[in-house]
Amino acid sequence: MLGLALSPVSGNRPAPWWPNGALYAADFTGWRFMRAGQGVPAAEALSFSRASAKLAPDLAGTWLSFAADVPAVTDRGLLLEPARTNAIRNSAGSGALPGTPGTLPTNWTRFVGGGLAASVGTSGMERGLPFVDLALSGTSNSANGTQISFDSPTGIAAASGQTWTQSIFLSLPAGTLANISFIRINLIEVAPGGSALGTLYGSNIRDSLTATPQRFSETQTLVQPGTAYVRPVIEIAYGNAANIAMTLRVAGGQMELGSAATSPILTNGSALTRAEDIMVLTHPLSSFDATAVLDTGATASLAGHNQNEPLPLGWLNGGMLRTLTS
Prior knowledge:
Number of helices: 1
Distance between the termini: 54 Å
């Protein structure tokens, strides 16, 4: 009689992707989930809602659009944000017509000092955002500057003591900054009648500008007692007899109440609000601790979170959520 010794085969089953001992795990870039030791579909791991569309960036720097109630997940992770309003009424730059001087986008204005010629160039889309090219050329006849305003003096209501963050994507597709003294993002506080009360100056970003679009932001707290409006502007300064030939590409201008910039909210005629992201985890425990890994490589910890409550948004510090384990 032939006897066969049979034993279980080990080592051929792939190891689970979640950490040993975890009760819950989420890999948002891979869109896979575990609950109580078993892989489960997203519908059994979480619920999600958002009452509006939004944008989120991928690793290449392109802003992708996500419909209402669709989690904003790219190869960078999941972007969870609070509700915010872009108070600039025409961040998309609609209404621009090329020419010298050309026609600026609706609600935008431009003051050009020192005798330079100003023109409006190409409009289009780059990295998921609409842009407008604004050019300056010539030799200045005085030490002066150019100011580009993204809304009218009374277009954005505000009040003293509020904290606003202005952000915008800028690049230099043509020309040079060799004879430009500085470029900065400023905020003008405006009285009820439309007159300027004072200017809150941003830092000089001249040396940071390249041909690749970058987002620049400034956060300012309004200090003038009579402030009724705010006006976001870009200031470009140059000296006398300066030979100027530059094209500034402008995209995604945003003015929002808050201490940090959030994802771009594209407007075309009126201010627009992006709704809050609401995500509730179907965790096995009624109260749990969790650790998240963000797209920045940093980690964030959440302690004693109620299973029935949406994930808080501030604990991610503006990062995108790659993984979460508990």
